[in-house]
Amino acid sequence: MTTQPLRTERSGPQTASAVTDLPFKPQLIKAVFRDVTSLHVSRPAACTAASVTRTVLTEIIEGARSAAAEEARTRLIPKDLISAIDRNIEVDVGSAWYLHNPTFHGLLGEVRNADGALVSLRERRGTRTPSGVAGAHRFEAGVRGLLGSRGVRAVPAMVRDLNGIASVFLTALARDAAQVVREGGVKRFGTVSLVVPGEPAPAPPPLNDTLLALSTRRGDSRTVGGDDVLAAATMQLFGDLGQRAITEATEMTRNTPAK
């Protein structure tokens, strides 16, 4: 589906309602952007980022709900999160959170350095806690609201994981959007290719019209706009989830007033 470009005319009641319904408010989104960039963040950019994050979290929650339903449970637990990611590689986001949370500790596998020595989890984490991990608690109200809107509940550990994934994903999205502004467009897109051992990697698929439109940036060099966030989404997401996130964000923000 080809998305429509963002427009900046003043919103009507329907658009205002759509923005109000976002689980993550523009103030929170802008706070995350301030953690990674000094660029000004427009209101359409904040709403676009909130919508993309909502789409990703909704897909994860739906996958977790299906896993819980198979065991006749009505409350989500961390095991359901792992099942959701295992079943749908498109929702495997927020990897920085995995290193800082018990849910994923047994799934990360061994990492060895050039000398063959095992690299400890503490070494892999680094000495500094990423801003997305440190700020995860800010997402709890929005995550609980999103769970409620999907008709499910979750144990505290699962809520904590969803908070962390939302925060880390949005932090990466903000960082990539700032990069799009600095570089004047998108230099890479999120893709996954299956490679047969011993055979050359297949050529990447041609870009569709939506991605081509986002690959060249228009706008001033001091402001992150809605299209910059959409371009960043193409770097973080792929497949049906990526396309749906872009489409839903564009539909929701097309009449959002710029501020």
What structural keywords apply?
single chain, 259 residues, mainly alpha, two-stranded parallel ribbon, two-stranded parallel sheet, 12 helices, globular, disordered N terminus
How would you describe this structure to a colleague?
There is one protein chain. This protein has twelve helices and four strands. The protein is mostly helical and 259 residues long. Strands 1-4 form a two-stranded parallel sheet. Strands 2-3 form a two-stranded parallel sheet. Helix 3 runs antiparallel to helix 9 and helix 11 packs antiparallel against helix 12.
Give a brief description:
54% of the residues lie in helices and 3% in strands. It is mainly alpha-helical. The protein has a two-stranded parallel ribbon. Strands 2-3 form a two-stranded parallel sheet.
Oligomer: single chain
Overall geometry: globular
Going across the major beta sheet, what is the strand order?
Answer: 1-4
Please provide the count of β strands: 4
What is the overall pLDDT average?
81
Residues in helices, as a percent range: 40-55%
How many helix segments?
12
* Main sheet summary: 2 strands, parallel
Could you spell the SSE succession in H and E letters?
HHEHEHHHHHEHHEHH
Give the N-terminus to C-terminus distance in angstroms. Answer: 29 Å
